[in-house]
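Subject: mismatched residue count in predicted assembly?

I count 665 residues in my input, but I want to confirm that the predicted structure covers every chain. Input:
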Amino acid sequence: MALDRWLALAILGLCLVYGYTAWFTMDANLPRFMQRNPVWPSTFPKALSVMGAICAVWILVFQKPLPEPGPDDVDYRKFLSYSWGRALALIALMLLYAATLRPLGFLGSTIGFLVIGAWILGEKRLYVSLPVALVAAGGIWWLVSEVLGIFLRPMPMFLM
Amino acid sequence: MLDGILLGLSTALSVQNLFLVTMGCMIGTLIGMLPGLGPMSIIAIMIPIAIGIGDPSGALILLAGVYYGAIFGGSTSSILINAPGVASTVATSFDGYPMARRGEAGKALTVAAIASFIGGSVGAILLMIFAPALSSVALLFHSAEYFALMVLGLAAIAAFSGQGNVAKAVLMTLLGLIMATVGEGALFNVARFTMGFPQLQSGFGFITLAMAMFALPEAIFLVMHPARSGKGDKSAAIGKLRITRQDARDMAPVVGRQSLQGFFIGVLPGAGATIASFLGYAVERNLASPAEREKFGKGSVKGLAAPESANNAACSGSFVPLLTLGIPGSGTTAILLGALISLNVTPGPRLMTDSPEIFWAVIISMYIGNVVLLVLNLPLIPYIAKLLSVPRPFLIPFILFFTLMGSYIGQNNPTELLILVLLGIGATALRMADYPLAPLLIGFILGRMMEDNFSRAMQLYRGPSFLWERPMTAALLVLALILLVLPTWRSRRERKRKIDTSMGD
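Triage response: the counts match. Full output below for your records.
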């Protein structure tokens, strides 16, 4: 089974869970006065879940095979021949950034993100990447915080 | 209309807005040149800044400037290194890159700039004529028609999303609609489908979704498959910028035709600049004399001018349904719509009467943006081209950082970043499996409005009878159904015919 069918199957599952909630559990705590309404909060989701499930089944059954990818397209069948390790490392780095943004402050976590990101992608010279990250993080903090007036905690939590 | 133009002029010509349109064009050109970042990602990245401005007309002017700049920047990288930054400039590289290889890169860039300028300006004039007319018709629409119109728009987007892809596009649209029902709706104060997470109480953030659908997968693809872009030699000399009189004579009819055609393709929902540019190229190739047809694909001035004027005119055209009906026809205008809603402006037929200064300022800023692009970019082209040599180890972390920042600034909540990354991983998988992602985002943005209009019509008619009792609603819905069924039916018939002929041989 090709990837698009697997994804259709996953979406079918999602539609079924969504539909179950809409058809069977949502209306239980609907106030009495709203029950006389011709339209309920669950009306639209009910319709969507049915249509989504039909469409997903349609793809599962009738979808033609994926077209041959061009040389520039990413082909999931050759996933292991790509630098997937780097991609995963960057995704992990993004999650790390989300986790450290508050406790470390904007400047620290951003400089870390940019330096480690460049390091993952092959720029190992710290005397190049560190100044670039410093200037960028400082500049963007100034732009967002001072020019646009959106508060970003620059320093770690215990400092301010 | 004259008052409107004057009002627009007075808004657009303020120092702040002139600065914004110039900045927008510059930033759009610079980022649009980078391979892999299309107008959708760039605009998504710029939204927090635009919202930070606070003034809706200023924000829309900035974003519109970014949009044109991105299209123009995309053609620069198509011509110079055969790496289109934007899907709508792929056709530009057919003839632009061969010209650059011949050492005529400067001439190619000039042709592209002039063709874009004329295409964009003609598009703006047509927009000025058609938008007010359409919006006076749209005022007659009720919630039932709005609902039907949105169904039609979504159906058209799915139907035009390419052969064999209609079912996938429909599924993505439905997924977008499903995602839009998460959180508290406007009509019912009930939190729906939040799965117990308080962060989902207000639904998915639209900027987060836009970033996750476009910028993040593109960046992940760039990391995984570096050969995707940046092929070809980067050392190509720019050469002279001048074009000859003969070139100008060759270009003129092409640019004229394609500006008109591109605009009307852009107006259609779901078509947009990409289809306009390919269709423009194909039409001009068929119209050319046999001797000239030979030159197409080998560096023909006509072949370069056609997609360039068509895609810029289509950009203006795609503003027509957005400004008059409040229904975006493309992913890019859908993002603009989301930005407008965040600024408390609801585009639609009332926009012209409620806040005419926004409406007209956007149109006037289109002219200014086009002039800025022409004046600013032509002399700067050799320097702008240097940006293409930013080393990848810096480029990608910065793209990722801007996507993260964009969704963080909007909500000021690190949980939003987790949602962004998870949705981004899902979007990457969907893209690998050839699922189109723009319908998902459009469905998400229209979802809430669609449900509101549907519920309002249901309440007015005490049930779903409006679907068949109002002739206009019924007609629009039938049209939507035809649009969805037609491509499947046609491809089936074609296949059948092929089998028949092969049996006859």
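DSSP finds six helices and no strands in chain A. Marking this ticket as 'not a bug'.
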